[in-house]
Amino acid sequence: MESGAAFAALHPNPTLLLGPARSAIQLLPPLTDKKSLSPHLLPLQATAAFNKQSRFVPFSNNNANSLRVASPASDVALESADIDWDNLGFGLVPTDYMYMMKCSQGEAFCNGELQRFGNLELSPSAGILNYGQGLFEGLKAYRKHDGNILLFRPEENAMRLREGAVRMCMPAPTVDQFLEAVKATVLANERWIPPPGKGSLYIRPLLMGSGAVLGLAPAPEYTFLVYVSPVGNYFKEGLAPINLIVETEMHRATPGGTGGVKTIGNYAAVLQAQSAAKAKGFSDVLYLDSTHKKYLEEVSSCNVFVVKGNVISTPAIKGTILPGITRKSILDVAISQGFQVEERYVTVDDLLEADEVFCTGTAVVVSPVGSITYLNKRVTYGGVGRVSQQLYSALTSLQMGLAEDTMGWIVELK
Length: 414
Known about the structure:
The chain contains eight helices and 20 strands. It is an alpha+beta fold. The longest helix has 14 residues, at 154-167.
């Protein structure tokens, strides 16, 4: 991997990390003065040859010229972030470092760097600002009681980003580059990962047209960026029922559009309906298809499921619905637990006649629905449903390392 040398993790305590070529990297301390958040490059300083008595061991790698991300052993004391972990919401908490990598149109990404977290400098005519040429991803890191750090299916995010980049006419990092950038950023900000059971470290990769372009065309330069923030529950209700309203006039996506990729503009389009719904006391909005206006698509940033008996149904992926990674995982977990699952057209009538309804997404994981309001008719489903609770417990136990990973979904960093 061309950018491997940039992936040595930064750590609150200067410590040596070892790469496959048995060279070491000197780690730098975290930011202690939030006034120094200007984004300048962090040097990765080579140090003396590896001491064979060190407790750090080399990572295997097929490319002898690249350096895999490592992290100091879990018994190294960490400088904890000054956060009230018991009252952590879902909002941006500025952390220490971010990751950045650039490339020109028609070329490949290389030479990524960890930088101090801070503002970006962009031309007013950048493709992302003028034409919305950008994608983002979302995934989480969890801390286990033994100090290990877990990622959940990060390769799925990498592949989805690459698929979206084709639709948006952008070059994309390779899967390996994506994974190494995520690992480096997580380990550089390790002290911001909440304690077990207190939340997670939300990871936000961005791919955007950062080059200047005036006429409508793909940008000449692209930036891949990764930043992180500790988070708690997305909905203030936590694992408590949310209340949705079905939107009948505005639509999230249309056939042939970009609803099936995680492009930035998809989310701005839901803000008006979402704001109006929240002003009326609803948690969020459920959108219908734009053609027939009777088939379920998505909630603003979540996939939706309906339960009837032992059957769990969710709208099929047909170009207007984002292929959620949590959605995909819930389907597999449900099958493993004996449920029948269906990916199909789901009507409003199916929704209103369901025994139970829930939403899924990286931020919410599984969120039970307490009520649906459609054309001024309100249908309630009671408290947290049995299926929602069962699937939530099964999936979060995997994500947090509390259950055996028989699916092979977990990437362990330490």
